[in-house]
Amino acid sequence: MSTDIDVLVLGGAGVDTIVYVPELPLPFADSYMIRPGIETRAGQTGDFVALGLSALGLNTHHLDVIGDDHEGDLVRAVHRERGVAFTEVVLPGGTKRAVNLVGPDGRRLSLYDASRSQEDDRLPEATVKALAAVSRHAHVCITHPCAFALPALRESGLTVSTDLHDWDGVNAYHEPFAYQADVVFLSTTALADPERTMRRITERGRAEVVVATAGAEGAYLLVGDEMTHIPAVPLPGPAVDSNGAGDAFASGFLYGWLSGRSPHRCGLYGAVTAAHACTVPSTSTDPLSRDELHARVEQLDSATPTHPVPVDARERG
After folding, report:
1. pLDDT digits 0-9 by tens, 18-30
2. Residue 45 burial by CB count (10 A; 0-12/13-18/19+): exposed, middle or buried?
3. What is the pLDDT of residue 155?
4. How far is 229 from 213, CA to CA, in rounded Å?
5. Which end of the chain has fewer surrounding CB within 10 Å, N or C?
6. What pTM value is reported for the model?
């Protein structure tokens, strides 16, 4: 069977309005004078993953519900300009959108508009199956209605990845994604015990690899029964914005994973692409290229060869 598509990305298309604020949390005031100006641009989690994978040389196809509106035109345009194939299903509620407040240190607070989707919205099963039949791998965003496409993806024999973002380990909405994916990404932000949650994902689901990103602390990698630490790498420039850093990490990791690299090497790729993303204002889109990734990894290897560090050994010092 021909596999023309390296990665089929489902969900996560939308627009963000970026507001740079003087601090986070933002104290109450009647008004603030915002500089630089407030901008709306295409790009949410699925868009960033698709663009990041494409920049790394993987043939990527994006599928999602989207509105017949101005915001939808922005999403269509960024895919067209970047040469990423995009199959759209009309969303009556309009294109998904969010407002992101970004502090001076690059931290982000996202206000996501959850009113755009309705419970009966679906990705057509025939479309999902047709695209899956010519794909190597599927990355499924946790936006509605992607959970309903998981059975068709599994039946097609594809490997599947997902990003649970700031899951608290309890919210049942995330469970179909967590337990039906082969590679699971999530953030430690809302987790009281990240290792416990990561191990529960492997015990209850089918995940071969679970990665929990922890910002400046790096990330934690669970493969089989072994938990290791992936150190953060130095930023190639000043930190200006953390928007899209998790999506960049997933793109870099998946590039390595689909290239047959070891999980820890994939983690290094993810750390490098995430570090790059933190130096890019979220009002623009500038994912790391494959050549740039390998050049930065080579520099890191030359400076300090990296090896997996078991978490328990690291904690013992």
Report:
1. 999 999 999 999 9
2. buried
3. 95
4. 10
5. C
6. 0.92
Query: How far is Cα 135 from Cα 143, in angstroms, rounded to an integer?
Result: 21
Q: Which of 262, 241, 251, 257 is nearest to 290 (CA)?
A: 251
Residues 6+ apart with CB under 8 A from 126: none
Distance in angstroms (rounded) separating the CA atoms of residues 89 and 316:
52
Q: Hey, CA dihedral for 46, 51, 55, 57, is it positive or negative?
A: positive
Q: Which residue has tokens 């994912």?
A: 287
Q: Which two tokens stand for residue 292?
A: 């740039």
